[in-house]
Every structure is written in structure tokens, then in C-alpha cells.
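Q: What would this chain look like folded?
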Amino acid sequence: MRGAGATTWAVRAAAAVLAAAGLGHTLWHGLVEPGTALAFGALIALGELACRDTAPARGRASGQPPAADRRPAPLGAAGALAYALLGRVAAQPAHHGVLQTVAVVVAATLVGIVPHIARGRGPAADHLARRVLTTAFAAACCRPLYNAGRLEQWLGQGSGPVLHLLLVLALTALCDAVLAAAPARSRTGRPYGPLLRDELRARPGIGAAVGATGAVTALGTAAAGLWALPVFCVPLLLTQLSFHRIGEVRTAYRQTITSLARATEVAGCTRPGHARRVAALSCAVGRELGLSERELTVLEYAALMHDIGQLSLVDPVPGGATALLPAAEARRIAGLGGEVVRQTGVPAEVAVVVERQADPYREQPVAARIVRAVNAYDDLAGGARHPGGSLAALEQLRLGTGRDYQPEVVECLARVLARGGRDRVVPVRPG
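A: My prediction, written as C-alpha cells:
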């Protein structure tokens, strides 16, 4: 873990050095084509000003927000990318270099985030570091070739420059994913490979819109001048505002589900924090198994509400430990929970996971296998139910892998626990 933390600090240090070099070089030599720099700087600052944070529920439950909820500034990112890719302005060559590109992006980003910082909601250092390094990478792929006139000399005026832009966009997206996986590894302790895969999966969607807008804005500015900036970027700004509204709806949705999950605790059916612990640990195991973001969302919702069927019982389960019940009774409670979940309006997959969580694992979907194993672990390890503690509880799950628990899920759970809950899993406490 020290190596992962060192990598994160190395990324931040590299971004800081590059930003200082860009600002120092630009202050010393002055701005090349200041009107163009000011226009793109204003666009980037506007994009940051229009960016608002959301509070993803899975960030609270499992320690790492889904890709859809990460703090995006699409307009700012597209403006920075467009300035790095800019070859001409109204058919006249653009001559700004890599260091000036970095300086304009850094200065504009800082201007745009000042109001957020004043409200205590500024972006993380990793967000800024990635913006600096990815912009520098894109600029390094384009600026020297543009300024020396070699790109047109080598590729001509046809489709060659466009193909070059597409290649730079793909490499920049890969660079951003590589940089994003480093702090995620430091936070969670997961292997770098699966984290990089998750980041690459997150690039389509808003990431593709950012890349396309950046490239089209650069090409439009080359043909029509700076008037192309509002024409091509207003749609992305509207998309960004809509994205925030969707994020707020998702946050409210997750908060509602979390409140429903706590109903079993308030009613005294389960131990305090049980649903949250099961959700956090289930998401960690799901990531270890390589589930997609949508699958993780279904898993989280099902884990939060997996015990909601106990609200229908006349006689509560002692301590809420359904893992200790006879199989028929556990399936009956799971079926009751599925019926309740279907009335909440959540996706049908969530209800399926809840109602099938007590089935033999070979008959279950993957999410139900995870919820069953993690719920049993928390039931067995919590309180004084297992005199041997968490290790003995895990060993008891291994003994049940013939029918009740999938061996791969149990081993993934063991790996997550061996990392000391590095996915910010809430530790199981006696009582």
C-alpha cells in the first residue's frame, strides 16, 4: 500500500511541477495569441463554475463512487482538450506551445474552482492533477507538430489530420484512465489491473462526449474562428447541467433506499449498521469479481434491502441473523423481502436478488451469491454468535461451499478482509 500511495504522490508532484513550469514560462515570455488564450480560458473557467458535486450513496457505502457519479467537469475538460488540439484559428496557424497550454488550463481551472473552494466543495487534488497531465499529454502530441508545420506536411489536408486527432483522443483517454486508477488503488488496495479496467469502462458516455466536443471545437475554430466556441460548447454545457440533475435524482434515490434499509434496524429486527456493512462488503467483493457498474448498483441496492422481509414477521429472528435459520425459513423471509422490494420501484433485478438470496448458490444470480455469503459472514462474525471470531466465521463459510456459498465468492471475501477492509468497509464490531 505504501507503493500505491507513493504512486499517487508522484502523479500529484509531476502535475505540480508541470503546472509551475507552464505558469513560470508563460509569465516570463508572455502569452502567444492572448485573445485565443483568453477565449479558451474563459470557456474552461465557465465549465468549472458550472460543475457541481454530487454525493453518491455508494461512495458512503463502499468507499468508491461509481463512474457515473465521479466529479465531472465536461465543459472544462472539453475546452482544455480543444485548446491542446487547436491547429488553426480562422485558417491562421495557432502558435501556442505545450507550456502555455498547461498554464492557460491551470489558471482557468483555478479561477473556476475558487467559488467551490469557498463553499468547501472544491475538487480533489487528483482531479486537478489528472487535468494537468492529460492536457499536457494531448498538447505534447499536437503542439510541436502544429508549430513546426509538420503535421500538414506529413498528413496533408484530407482525412489524415482528422485521423491524427482521433488517435490523440484515444491515447489521451487511455492516459486519463491510467492516471485515475492510481489514486483508486491507493484508496482501496485493489490490484491495479481491475481498477484500470473499471476506468476504461467508464470512458464511454460522458467521456466520449468530452472527447468529441474537444475535437469538433478545435476543428470548428480552425474554420470559423473563436465564434465556434459557443456554437459547439453550449450543447455540452446543457448536457452538463442535465447530468447534474440526473446525479441529484440518483442521490435522492439512493438516500431513499438507504432509509428503507434502516427500517429493519429501527424496528429492532437487525443489529445496528448490519445493512450498511453488508452493502459495503458486498460492493468490495463485487469489484473483486469484476462486476460492471450497473451490476454493482443492483448489488448495492439488494444488499441494503436484503433483510427487509423481516418487517413482515410476527416473531422477529433472534438478532436478525437469517444465516442461522433453517433453509426453508430463510427462503420464506427472502421471498417476503422480494415482494416488499417490488413495491419500492427499484429495478426488478434488485427484487430477484433479494428473493433468491437464500437459494443454493448454483441456482442464484451472481449478486445473490455475494449477498448471501457476506450476510452470513456478518451474522456469524457479529456479536457473540461465533466464539472464534471473524476468522472462524470465514472458515465456516468455506465449509458450506458445497451447497450454500460459491467458493469463488468466499475466496474474494477472504481477500477483501485480508486487506483490512481497504474498500472502506465498516468493520464488524461486537454487540
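Strands lie at 88-89, 92-93.
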